[in-house]
Amino acid sequence: MRPQVLIIGCGFGGLEAARALSGSGAADIDVTVVDKTNHHLFQPLLYQVATAGLSAPSIAAPIRHLFRRQRNVTTLMGEVVAIDARARTATLKDGGLLRWDHLIVAAGATHSYFGRDDWAAFAPGLKTLDDAFEIRRRVLLAFEAAEREDDPARRAALLQFVVVGGGPTGVELAGTFAEIARHTLPGEFRRIDPRQARVTLVEGSPRVLQAMPESLSERAREQLAALGVEVRVGARVTGLDAQGLDFVTDSGAERLDSRCIVWAAGVAASPLGRVLAEATGCTLDRAGRVVVEADLSVPGHPDIQVIGDLAAARSHVPGREPRPVPGVSPGAKQMGRCAAANLKRRRRGEPTQPFRYRDYGNLATIGRNSAVVDLGTPAGPVRFSGYPAWLFWLFAHVYFLIGFRNRFMVLLDWAWAYWTYDRSARVVTQRGQPGA
Amino acid sequence: MRPQVLIIGCGFGGLEAARALSGSGAADIDVTVVDKTNHHLFQPLLYQVATAGLSAPSIAAPIRHLFRRQRNVTTLMGEVVAIDARARTATLKDGGLLRWDHLIVAAGATHSYFGRDDWAAFAPGLKTLDDAFEIRRRVLLAFEAAEREDDPARRAALLQFVVVGGGPTGVELAGTFAEIARHTLPGEFRRIDPRQARVTLVEGSPRVLQAMPESLSERAREQLAALGVEVRVGARVTGLDAQGLDFVTDSGAERLDSRCIVWAAGVAASPLGRVLAEATGCTLDRAGRVVVEADLSVPGHPDIQVIGDLAAARSHVPGREPRPVPGVSPGAKQMGRCAAANLKRRRRGEPTQPFRYRDYGNLATIGRNSAVVDLGTPAGPVRFSGYPAWLFWLFAHVYFLIGFRNRFMVLLDWAWAYWTYDRSARVVTQRGQPGA
C-alpha cells in the first residue's frame, strides 16, 4: 500500500507542502489535497479585488490546475468537519470519509471580532473572494446611493468609509479607498463630488503597521495622510451597527456615522483547530492556534502536522531562544516545505528537524507610489519608503503570483490602472442593490 | 427649464440612445439613465463568463464611466417599478421619484419558462452576470462532485450536461461545455475522465439556429457533433426537476438524468412592459412586448418611446410590407439611434420618421474554430462556416466590445485560451459547495 498523505487546506502552506511531496523521495506517496474552495488564493492581493482593481481570476488559480502535472496529487473540493486521530480518518461536511497515514493541517485563519460576532454583519472582513466581492459591493453602492441621496447628513454618512485595524490589510484598504474617491470616480458623478468622501482608519494601538519599525510606521502614517486618509490611533471600537461605529480614545468617546465599515482588525485560527484539539488533546493558544512541537507535529502525534496560520509555531535557531513565527505567507510556505521534509525523514527512519523561519523582511503598500519596506540583509536592516518601496512591493508581489499568466495579466491591469487611474473591475451584480 | 429625458435600462438600446442625445441638437437636453445594475453588459459574450473563459469585468463596463465625458448625462442605479404617463414620473423600487418630459423605455428581456416558472430553480437561464456565475458554478461543481462520487449512475448524472434551446446562446453554451470536457479539464482529474462527460442540446423545432438559412443550420449541427455535442431536435421538454429532464420526440418520451441543465429556450419581455401598459393602455404582444408605432412611440403617447427587446417594432422600407425586427443587438442599437433622432425632430417641430432596420447579417459561434456566418451584401447573401467564420465572428465581437481596454483584454484572454486550451476564470467561491 502506498502511504496516503492528506493535506487540509490549499493556501500558501498546503500548496507548498503538496508541491514538496512530489519527485525525489516522495514519488511513492499518494497525496490528497482537500479544500473548501476550488482555488488557491493569492491573499496578499485580495484587497485589490475588494477595491475593484483586479478581477477574481487574476489572483485565484484552480487548485487542480496547479497540480495537473503532479500525478501523485489528487485534488478534492470539500470541507473537513471531523478528524479521528486513532482511526486516521477525516470526515467531510457532506459525509464523505478520507483515510490518511499522515495528516498535514493547513486550514488557515478567519476574522476575529473579539467575541462580538454580531459585528460581522456591519463590518465584513477580508479573507475570501466572497468577502472581497462584498466589500467591493458596499464601497461602490455607497457612492451610488450617495448620488441619489438629497439629505446632507445621510449623504455624508454614505460617503464616510471606515477601516478598522491598521495592519497591512487595513492600511492597503484605506489607502485604496482614498485613491478611488480622489482619482477614479471624480468626473463620473453629477450630484456629488466623490472627493468629498472621508476615509478613516481606526487602530487600537498607538501606531499603524505594528510589525514594522517605528520609523516606517511613521512614514506610512504620513503617506496615508497625503492620500487623504484620517488615521486615528489609540482608538478602541466599542460599538458597531448598521449606521456607524463608536470608539473611545484618550480624549473620550466618539461616533462616526458610516454605511461602509470594513473589519481588518483581528485574526482567529480556523475552527479546525478546535476539531484537532478534540481529536488529539493538543493545546490551543489564545488565538485558537495549535501549539506544535519544534518539528511542527502535534505533541504525541508525529503523524499529524500543523502549518501556516493555524500553527502556533516557533522558529528554532541554534544557540538562540525559540521565537514565534509571524502570520505571513513566507512563514506558511516555509512551514509547508519543512513539514514535507520531516515527513520524508520519518519515512526514511531519520530524526525530524526543528522548524527555522527565515525572515526576509516586511513590506506594505499604502497606495499609488507609496509603500514601506523593511528588509533583513546580512549587512543589517535596509529600510526605505515612498516610490522605490512601491516599485519593490509591486515586483515582489507579481513575482510571487502563482502561474505565469496571472502575473502577466496583473501587470497589464496595473499598468492600465496606473496610467488611466481607472479601476477595471467596478462591477456590482444585481444581488446587491443600493441599501440592500 | 431644460427638457428632461429619462432612459430606463442601459443595454445596447439605452446606451445608444443616450449617446445619440449629446452634442449637436441635444446639448440643451438633460438625460438621466437609470439601470438596475451599475454596468452595461456586452451580452453576446456573456456565455464566455458562464463557461469560465472570461472574467466579468472583461464584458461589463460601469455605466457612469461610459458617460463620464457626456456632461448632460446623469447615471442612476435603481429599479423602476411604476410609471405615471400623465404626471410624467417614474417611481423607483426604494421610493425615489424621477420626473421626465420624454421617456425612452429600454428595459430588455428576461427568460421565459413558458408558464413553468418552477423550472427556473432547476435550469438557470443566461441574461445577467449573476446568471453567468450561477451556470459557471454548476458546471464546475458538477465535475468536482463527480470526482468524489463512487456510484456509477450518480457519477454519470453529474457528468451529463443539458442545454435546452438551440438558438445562438444554446449552441454557444453546448459547444463550449464540450470543449471544457474534452480539452480544458482532462489531465486534472484522477478518478474521473472528464472526456466521458455528455453534452446534450435539446431543441423543440426541427433544427438549430432557426434564424439562419437551413444550410447553415446543418453546418452548425455538424460542427456541434464534431465537438461531441448530442443534438436532439424536435424534442419538447415536458418536465424538469433537480434530477434531470423529461422530453418527448416523435419516437416517444425520454428522460435524461442530469445535475446541470441550462435554459436557453425562451425569452420574455421585461415586466416593465406590463407597467407601461397599465400607464398608457398600450397593447402587448404574446411575448409581453410593447406594440409601438412606426416611429417607436407608444400609441397616443408621442413622448414615450420603447426600444430594444421590449419593443414589438417593425422595420419600414418604402414600398414593402413592414417586417418584424429580430431581437438582436444591432436591432436594439439602431432603435436607440432612431428614438434619439425622432426626439430631436419633435423638439424642432419636424415630423418623426419610421424605424428602418438594416440587417447586416447573422452569425453564431459553436466552439473552437467553428462558427456560421450569413451576411447580407448588396451583391446578395454571403454564407460561410468553419474556421473563416470563426475568425470573422471573433473580430466582429471584439470590435463591438465597449471600450478599448476591454477589447484588448478579451483578445489577450482568447489568445491565451486558444494556445493553451486553458480557461482563466475557473473560480467558484465558497457560497457554492458541491451539491449546494
UniProtKB/TrEMBL annotation, chains A, B:
Residues covered by the FAD/NAD(P)-binding domain: 4-319
EC number: 1.6.5.9
SUPFAM superfamilies registered for this protein in UniProt: FAD/NAD(P)-binding domain
Domain External alternative NADH-ubiquinone oxidoreductase-like C-terminal: start-end pairs: 361-415
UniProt-listed InterPro entries: FAD/NAD-bd_sf, FAD/NAD-binding_dom, NDH-2, NDH2-like_C
Top EC class for this record: oxidoreductase
Flavoprotein listed as a keyword: yes
Catalyses which reaction(s): a quinone + NADH + H(+) = a quinol + NAD(+)
Protein name according to UniProt: NADH:ubiquinone reductase (non-electrogenic)
Organism: Pelomonas caseinilytica
